[in-house]
């Protein structure tokens, strides 16, 4: 089931690199996927597999982006779609999934509670819930982000790759994809450092990394503007932690203010409009470069995974209302010096 997913642009970001005094910086721009996020990658694989296995309905538990991605692919397939989301999910994401025709189940609670209910529903009904009972297929879809990046770097892996983390599945898929490319000889010996990024209001994987612990302690009540990353009990947390450690990488978080600054910085220097998850990536990049954790003479790929149009309620916080004027040159001259 294909809506034209992937093959997204790897932008060389000269202006942002200059601002951060980095030698070479790229953004893998997954905001331009058909439904506006990288989630189209796992959704296309999982919905295709659901059809192959003979399921008559699909669905997912979602913080918003997977809801839209699954709903769009279900619409194309002509089968019903049931999405379980926390009731505080950003309205644009709900609107998008509902417009594709999905049945929206807005759960009064956190993502973890919505996810638990979805898991029970997958037992009760004969539904293929893409990130629950089809998860082994779903997680493979995101490897394409790593494959494309290597190809776009002329069959090289970057020195560093910064990845936003919710459940940690994307980070694990990228690490697995890079290792597979190295194993079959499509890229040289793998030296990429995997860098995980989370919002400060929900950073269980970063906390475990920083405290050198193997316990990813769930965050009961996530509180962040990066709602797509607000997964308090990350399903792939321990595996993400292992991938970061195995690669010699790092993990860092960003406050809401830093996330908004990250969104602005990326938009103003590179013309890329991102949702808060991308703001987390850019904020963490900036922090780690300034801390000397990412050497300035190495190359870096940042994964920008969701479109800004999906999160206008958060981005409104940094929006300056335009000045209204009468349609005259005199009025114009008052505001353009
Ligand atoms: C835009 C965006 N980026 C990153 C992530 C994190 O993905 P994962 O849950 O696989 O860690 C999500 C999860 O929903 C997302 O919507």
Question: Can you put this structure into words, describing what you see?
Answer:
This protein has 337 residues and is an alpha/beta fold. The protein has 14 helices and 10 strands. The protein folds into 2 domains: 10-37 and 142-318, 3-Layer(aba) Sandwich (Rossmann fold); 40-138, Rossmann fold (3-Layer(aba) Sandwich). The protein has helices at 14-20, 40-52, 65-77, 91-99, 111-124, 135-141, 143-152, 169-183, 204-210, 237-246, 256-270, 276-290, 312-315, 329-335, and strands at residues 10-12, 24-29, 58-61, 81-86, 103-107, 128-129, 160-164, 193-199, 250-254, 299-304. The strands form 2 sheets. Strands 1-2-10-7-8-9 form a 6-stranded mixed beta sheet, sandwiched between helices. Strands 5-4-3-6 form a 4-stranded parallel beta sheet, with helices on both faces. Helix 1 crosses helix 11 (256-270), helix 2 (40-52) runs parallel beside helix 3 (65-77) and helix 9 packs across helix 10. The mean pLDDT is 97. Bound molecules: pyridoxal-5'-phosphate. Pyridoxal-5'-phosphate binds at residues 37, 39, 63, 65-66, 164-170, 228-229, 275, 277, 305-306.
